[in-house]
C-alpha cells in the first residue's frame, strides 16, 4: 500500500455519547495514524474510558461513527474488530501458566499449534519474560503480571491495542520503567497504541501525539513538545506541566499586553489582535528569570516579593507575589545563579523578567474548566494559598 494513501488506523466522526440526559462525550472528530503511539490525556471523569469503549464496540455511541483502517465498523461487534483492549485490572487466569495465559486467545481461535508456540514465545520475548513461561501469575511481581497482560494483548497481532490507564496499579518507580518499556515494545511490534492516562508526564514521555480532553471534548491534538510549548488554551497550558497565567488586555496599538496593576509586559501578540480585548498570558516557570533589587531602585521588569523557595535537587523553585497579589512560580536549574537566588531572604524585593517569546498569548476564555490556578509544584503545595 502506498503510504500517502494509507487510511488512518482509527477515524472518529461526530462520535458522541450520552447516558440519559448526561452527555459525557461531545461530538468529536479524531484521526489516529497507523503505527502511532497516541495518548488520550485528561482528568478523571472527562470521558476517556467511554471514548475507548466506543472504539472497541463495548459501548454503543449515541451518534457518529467509527472507522478502523478505512472501514466503517458501526455494525461490527467487538469480537470482529481488529483490536484488543488492555484494562487497568488485567485479570490473568490464576491457574494457568504465563505461557497458557498468553496462548489462551489463540487456542480459542483454533490457531495451529506450531503457530501458537511461535507467537507466544515472540510475545514473551517482547515483554522480556521468556524465562518465566512456566510460572503461575501468583509467582510474579506486579510489574511482571502487567507484562504478561501486555503480551496477551499483542499476541493476536491486532491492528490497534487500546490501553486504559494500564500502569495505574503500579508504584511510581515501576511506572516510570514501564513507560519506557511500553514505548519500546510499541516500536518493536509496530501496532497502533491508543493509551489513556490522566498523568501528563506519562503522556509526554511516551506519545507521538496527545489528545488533551476535558469534559467530553478534545481541546488539542499535537505532539508532546507542541502541547507543552504551544498550548492552545488556558486549560491545556495549566494541565500540562506547571504554568503561570496572567490576565491582561491587548494595548491600544494591538502589539503589546497590559496587565492591570502591573503595566506593559513582554508578550508576542499575534497579528490582528483586537486592541482592548482580554487575553491570558501563559509563561512557564523555567522561562522566567528573577533577580534581587533594592526596594526603591527603578527597574526594568515586573516587581514582586519573594514569598517562599524550595530546593528540589535539580532546580530551585521560587514563589513570588506580584503587587496585584497574584502568586507566580519561577524555577531555576541548580547552579551558581540558583544558589545566589536561594540566599535571598523571604520578603525581599525582586524583579521578574521574561522574553516576549516566552509569554504565550491565549484567548481569555472563562476558566471554569481549568484546574485550580495554583502554579505550585508539588513541593510547595499550599504555599500559594
Ligand atoms: N455506564 C454509565 N452510566 C452512566 N454514566 C456513566 C457510565 N459510564 C461512565 N459514566 C459517566 O461518564 C463520565 C465519563 O466517565 P469515564 O468515561 O469513565 O471518564 P474517565 O475515563 O475519563 O475517567 C463520568 O461522569 C461517568 O460518571
Ligand atoms: Mg477511565
UniProtKB/TrEMBL annotation:
UniProt key word Nucleotidyltransferase: no
GO cellular component: ATP-binding cassette (ABC) transporter complex
PROSITE patterns, alphabetized: ABC_TRANSPORTER_1, ABC_TRANSPORTER_2
Enzyme category, top tier: translocase
Reactions catalysed, as given in the entry: ATP + H2O + polyamine-[polyamine-binding protein]Side 1 = ADP + phosphate + polyamineSide 2 + [polyamine-binding protein]Side 1
The UniProt record lists the keyword Translocase: yes
ABC transporter domain mapped to chain residues: 10-240
Enzyme Commission number, as recorded: 7.6.2.11
Record Pfam families: ABC_tran (PF00005), TOBE_2 (PF08402)
Family statement drawn from the similarity comment of this UniProt entry: Belongs to the ABC transporter superfamily. Spermidine/putrescine importer (TC 3.A.1.11.1) family.
Record's subunit section: The complex is composed of two ATP-binding proteins (PotA), two transmembrane proteins (PotB and PotC) and a solute-binding protein (PotD).
Protein name (record): Spermidine/putrescine import ATP-binding protein PotA
Lineage, opening ranks: Bacteria, Bacillati, Actinomycetota, Actinomycetes, Micrococcales
Amino acid at each position: 500500500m502506498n503510504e500517502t494513501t494509507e487510511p488512518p488506523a482509527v477515524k472518529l466522526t461526530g462520535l458522541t455519547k450520552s447516558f440519559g440526559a448526561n452527555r459525557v462525550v461531545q461530538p468529536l472528530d479524531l484521526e489516529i495514524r497507523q503505527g502511532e503511539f497516541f495518548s488520550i490525556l485528561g482528568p478523571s471523569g472527562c470521558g476517556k474510558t467511554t471514548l475507548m469503549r466506543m472504539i472497541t464496540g463495548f459501548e454503543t455511541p449515541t451518534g457518529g461513527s467509527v472507522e478502523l483502517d478505512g472501514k466503517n465498523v458501526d455494525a461490527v461487534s467487538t469480537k470482529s474488530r481488529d483490536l484488543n483492549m488492555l484494562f487497568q485490572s488485567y485479570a490473568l487466569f490464576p491457574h494457568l501458566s504465563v505461557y497458557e495465559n498468553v496462548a489462551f486467545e489463540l487456542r480459542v481461535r483454533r490457531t495451529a499449534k506450531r503457530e501458537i508456540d511461535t507467537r507466544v514465545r515472540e510475545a514473551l520475548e517482547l515483554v522480556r519474560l521468556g524465562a518465566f513461561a512456566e510460572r503461575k501469575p501468583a509467582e510474579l511481581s506486579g510489574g511482571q503480571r502487567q507484562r504478561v497482560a501486555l503480551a496477551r494483548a499483542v499476541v493476536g497481532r491486532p491492528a490497534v491495542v487500546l490501553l486504559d490507564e494500564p500502569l495505574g496499579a503500579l508504584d511510581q518507580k515501576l511506572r516510570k520503567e514501564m513507560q519506557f518499556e511500553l514505548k519500546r515494545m510499541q516500536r518493536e511490534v509496530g501496532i497502533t497504541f491508543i493509551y489513556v492516562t490522566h498523568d501528563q508526564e506519562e503522556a509526554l514521555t511516551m506519545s507521538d501525539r496527545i489528545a488533551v480532553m476535558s469534559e467530553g471534548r478534545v481541546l488539542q491534538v499535537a505532539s508532546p513538545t507542541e502541547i507543552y510549548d504551544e498550548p492552545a488554551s488556558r486549560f491545556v497550558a495549566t494541565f500540562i506541566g506547571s504554568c503561570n497565567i496572567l490576565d491582561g488586555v491587548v494595548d491600544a496599538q494591538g502589539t503589546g499586553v497590559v496587565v492591570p496593576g502591573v503595566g506593559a509586559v513582554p508578550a508576542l501578540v499575534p497579528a490582528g489582535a483586537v486592541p482592548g480585548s482580554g487575553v491570558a498570558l501563559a509563561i512557564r516557570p523555567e522561562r522566567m528569570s528573577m533577580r534581587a533589587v533594592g526596594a526603591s531602585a527603578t527597574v526594568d521588569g515586573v516587581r514582586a516579593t519573594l514569598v517562599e523557595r524550595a530546593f528540589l535537587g535539580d532546580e530551585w523553585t521560587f514563589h513570588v507575589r506580584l503587587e496585584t497579589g497574584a502568586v507566580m512560580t519561577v524555577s531555576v536549574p541548580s547552579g551558581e545563579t540558583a544558589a545566589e537566588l536561594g540566599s535571598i531572604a523571604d520578603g525581599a524585593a525582586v524583579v521578574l523578567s521574561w522574553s516576549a517569546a516566552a509569554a504565550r498569548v491565549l484567548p481569555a476564555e472563562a476558566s471554569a474548566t481549568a484546574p485550580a490556578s495554583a502554579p505550585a509544584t508539588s513541593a510547595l503545595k499550599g504555599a500559594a494559598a
